[in-house]
Each structure stands twice: as structure tokens, then as C-alpha cells.
Amino acid sequence: MTEILRVENLIKYFPVHGGFWGREIGRVHAVNDVSFSLKSSETLGIVGESGCGKSTLGRTLLRLYEADSGKVYFKNQNLLDLSKRDLRQMRRDFQMIFQDPNESLNSRQTVESILSEPLEIHGVGDRQSRKEVVKSLLAKVGLPESAGIRYPHEFSGGQRQRIGIARAIALSPSLIVCDEPVSALDVSIQSQVLNLLLKLQSEMQLSYIFIAHNLAVVRHISDRVAVMYLGEIVEITDADSIYSQPLHPYTKALISAVPTPDPSHTTERIVLKGDVPSPFDPPFGCAFHPRCPHAVDQCKREKPVMRDFNGHQVACHLAETL
Amino acid sequence: MKFFKMSPASKRQFARFKSIKRGYWSFVIFMSLILVSVFLELFISERALLVKYENKYYFPTYGHQIPGNVFGLDYEYETNYRELHEKFAGSSDNFVVLPLVPWGPLENDLEARYDQNSKRLYPPFAPEYARKHYLGTDSTGRDILARLFYGFRIAIAFSIFLLFINYFAGIMIGCFMGWLGGRTDLYMQRFIEVLSNIPFLYVVMIVASIVTPTFYSLGFIMAAFGWISMTWYMRTATYREKARDYILAARSIGATDFRIIFKHIIPNSLALILTFIPFSISEAIVSLTSLDFLGYGLPPPTPSWGGLLDEGVRTLSAYWILASVVTAMVIVLILVTFMGEAIREAFDPKRHTTYE
Asked: How many domains in chain B?
């Protein structure tokens, strides 16, 4: 499998202004030195608590936010180097699905005009052929042809998300960043939308970056999973081993919090102490050390680097001993 | 067949607007007034609607003047159709159909009139039904009803002209400020604050003392200050809309800034813009009237409400002048206000919010 996306040392911070003159008094490191890679037709799940920078990471990858440093190689082309015009051309190859379909669809456009907009922008076909494409898109995501003349608010949440998905696949991209695509939906609808995403992936050889906070959802869809904490990836490995043998204490705590449907099943719940530290003023050393049950002196002094254990990468000083 | 496809949000808003009876009927009446004023020559004019003379039909309302000798009169200047009407009164073949009010706004009716003591009267003349001066004449014998309606036509045309310039400039500049944000926005705001503190009336007075204002030059002077208020609203609307996910979605499919502004931000701010239109119109009517009243508006003999108001105030004994113009202004401003209230009510962003 070829590599489609390689992210190197990506950093995105948001300046914080304050004081009488409104000067920059600090920075929130939303994405702090993140590196990973993605193969084609692969799904990388990104999990983490809210506020850990998952969504920012997704948006920075697609240059919806401008990164502060780092490199994003998409098909061996650094996206961060592209001019605005070239980037717009490139955008047809990577798309995004948003969390809240109420917000991500323009309520004043019909579904047809929403779906034909990407085609129009990239000059695909003429008016008539675009209509045909819209019809086939609707069929692909399981919506009736009559949906075209209607407006987003006339649909249920799940159907609206299908419209969002149809828009994302309109230009047959090779990468789609799914930013919590099911967390705004009812549980009963979630699996339908996930299965649709899986079906489209096998049909169109899509690569997904799947951002979520629900571990069960991520396990269902992902080939590999990255765990984020305070803007950093702390562990990244294939989906099965992150559940069966998590190495990072934070991942262990997350996994232990997943509810199981079996009432006789008892696992020791790891309850973390304290709150997530402010990303405005992250702790020195390992960002997780104030909450880590195993923290030693080294964790307070040195920032752990990502280490590889047979493809299972983890950023923890104590990975071998725990 | 549907010429105009409305989004369901607009449909809902329109239904709601219709349900507010007062505003809806004000809208209907106001629109008919505008329609009447567009074809005003058919209702109020010194020219006849239709003349039949020697088995030929003439429609003098629009087009070139028809000299009197065409109809067998002994002069070559424009036919006086009221006299022609009287002349043809006896004949069965020839006839003249006059408009409801057969007086033009610039015509002076100086025909001698006498009171019961055979004392000659001078204008202003009180309302006379016999000569079809339904609201009387002003101090130079011009028909007040005609001047009111022609003045209304100019005022409405002026406010619509002003509206277009103001809104175009306001929306563009406001969008620009909101879209770019940051320093551009900051400096533009300060610039606009300085501009908006220049006393508008003084500028108009200075300009009017140098050149005689015309319809367009007055419009542009007023627009030079009028676009400001719209920028504030458009700027905030742009700030609000651009932070929403559908704008991000549009960017992620590769839309240009231009496309995002014109296809997404402006249509979604339309409700806001629409609610201000009636109030802008009434504002423009009032400011044109007050400029005319002060003598800095459109030059005489242009029919204007401000001029009539001025005359009415100076000749209070001819109460019909002041009474007519005040009544007309009150009616029009009430219509516009009712309309504006209903539109604002129907398009209230708090009611039809998309945030839910």
C-alpha cells in the first residue's frame, strides 16, 4: 500500500491576546508537534478528550487553519507550501465531513445546489451532466432522487449527514477527514452512517482520518488508532492492539472507561485524578504526568519521545515497565 | 410555472409577513402607490388620455406635444386639452377624455376668479371641484394634488436610487471589513467613525451653495454619508456567518473568497438587509423633504413635499396647502412604518434562527 499522507512535526497554536494593548500574551498549543502517516485505503482513527486538538488537527491538515510549522505531504506534495490557487485546485482530492450537519449545510441552498457546488467550482461537466452526477451521488449515499429539490432542514439528522457525505465524495477524493461525523447523531443512526462510510471506502478506495471521542465507534471503523492528549499524539498503533494491549497510561485509562455490554464483565476502572491541564500552560516534561498514576521524576523533567515497539508507537518513558 | 423559487425559510417568512394584516395591507397600498406614480401621467396630467378628432384617435399622454392646430385650434403651441374638452363638449363625433386630475404639476392656473362681491381673487385658491383642483392650488396657482403626487414620485425614485447606492456600498464594504477582519477592519472602522461625524447638513449646504443640486448629485452627496449604517450590520453579519461550519465546508471544497461571500454570506444575511429597507426608504423621504423645506434640496419648480411644506407654513391662511402635505406625509410614513414593522417581525432572526 502506498503512503498517501505523511505529517511531520505539525504545530498549530492560537495566540492569546490580553492586557491593555491587546498584545499576544501567550499561545494555546492546539496541535503540538504531531507526526504520523496514512496509507491509501486506510482509516486512521484519532481519539482524545474534547479540547485535546483533534478537530484542529483535522482542519490544519486540510489547511482550513494555517499551520505554524511542520509539513503535510499529501501524495508527496507538501500542502503547506502550495499557493492559495494551487491549494484550491488540490482540494478536490481531499475533503472533509463535518460534525454537525445542521451547521455544515447552507440552509438557503437546495440539496442539488449543495451537491453540485463542488462540481461547479472545479468545472466538472456542464449543467446537465452535473444533474446526473448529483442523482448518482444521492443514490450512492442512499437518498431518494427527489431529495435534490429539497432543503437541508427537511431532512433528519442522519439524512443530512448523508448529504454532507455526498458532498465530500462528489469530486472522488482520495482522502476524507471525518470530524466526528456521527457524534451529533442518534445511536441508532450512527451505525448506518458508519456502514455507509465503510461501503464508500471499499467502493472508492478512500482513506479516512476519522476523528471521534467514542472509542467503540473508532474501533469499528479504524485500521489504526492515534490517541491524542493536549495537542500531542501519545500512542499510535493498529486498532486491535490499542484495545488489547495499550501501552500508554492515558490510553489505558481511556480503554478502561469504555462501557461493556456484559454485566458480569468486571475490569478495574482507572480513574484519573485532576482535570486536563490548560493547553495555554501545559505541564513541563510529559504533558500527562500530573494525572498519571505511575509518574516518576523523569516524567516531570523530560518530554518523552515517540518510540516504536514493533509498529506500536508510544510516547511514554515507562512504556517497557508498565 | 414558477418564476421565482423561494427557499422554505423565505416561504415561511413570507407567510408570516402576510399574516400580519396591518403590515401586509400597508405593503399592498404602498406598492399600488408606487405603481400609480410610475404611470402617473395617466391619472394626473395636463395632457388628455384620448382625443377623437375627425375620426382619428390621438393618445397625447406620452410622446411629443401635439400642437393646437392639429385639432383645429388657432395656435401652434401645445394643445390645452381642458379647453378642447369644453369645445368638443357639444359635438357627438369629437371628444376628449381627460385624466382624473387634468392639471400638470408645473402648470399655473391663473384664470381670474371673483368672490360674491365681484372682488378679484388671487392664488392660492381653495379647493374647487368645478375646475378640478381637488386640494386647491398653491400661491402660484399650481394644483396641489398634482404637485403632491409628482413630488411623491420624485421622493420615491430618489429614495430607491439612494437605497441602491447605499446598500450596494454598505454591503460591499461591510462584507469586506468582516471578511478580512483584523487590522483592516479596525482601521476602516475608525475611518468610518470620522466620516460619520462630519455634519451631513453642512456638507449639503456648502455643496448646494456652490452648485445647484440635481437629482443625481443630491443622491450622491446623500449616499456619501448614507452607506455607513449598513456597513455596521453587514460587518457583524459577516463575522457571524464566516465562523460557521458551512463556510468552512465551502472552503474545503475549494470555493474562492468571492464565491463564499456572494453565494453564502450575502444570501444568509439577506433577511437582515431586507428588514432595513422600509426604514431606509422613510428615512430618505424625510431627509429629502427636510432638505427641500430648508431650500437645499432639488431646485424649484421641481414638485416636492418640502417645498409645499415651506409654502404651507408661510401662507397659513391657505390652510389646505399645509393640511394636504402633512396628511400625505403622515399617511406615507405610517404605511412605511407598518410595513417595516411587519417585515422585521416576519424576518426576525431570533424567531427563525438556524441555530435552533
From this structure: 2
A91 neighbourhood in chain B, CB within 8 Å: 252-254
For residue B8, the chain A residue with the least C-alpha distance is: A151
Contact B109, B133 (CB under 8 A): yes
Query: In which element (H, E) is residue B40 found?
Result: none
Q: Give the three-state DSSP class for A77.
A: strand
- pTM of the model as a whole: 0.81
CB spacing of A91 vs B252 below 8 angstroms: yes
Q: Which three cell numbers stand for residue B13?
A: 417568512
Answer whether the bond into residue B124 is a cis peptide, omega within 30°.
yes
Residues of B in contact with A103 (CB under 8 A): 244-246
The radius of gyration of chain A from alpha carbons, rounded to an integer in Å, stands at 21
- Predicted confidence pLDDT, tens digits, chain B (356 residues): 344 566 666 777 788 888 888 889 999 999 999 999 999 888 888 888 888 888 888 888 887 888 877 777 788 888 888 888 877 777 778 888 888 888 888 878 777 777 777 777 777 777 777 777 888 888 888 888 888 999 999 999 999 999 999 999 999 999 999 999 888 899 999 999 998 898 888 888 888 888 888 888 888 888 888 889 889 999 999 999 888 889 999 988 888 889 999 989 988 887 788 888 888 888 899 988 988 888 888 887 888 898 888 888 888 888 888 899 999 999 999 999 999 888 888 876 555 544 43
Q: How far is A70 from chain B (nearest CA, A)?
A: 20
Residues of B in contact with A117 (CB under 8 A): 250, 253, 255, 263
| Residue A161 sits at the chain B interface (C-beta within 8 Å) | no
| A3-235: CATH, from 3.40.50.720, 1.10.1040.10, 3.40.50.1370, 3.40.50.300 | 3.40.50.300
Q: Mark yes or no for CB contact A88/B256 under 8 Å.
A: yes
Tell me, what DSSP letter sits at residue B261? I
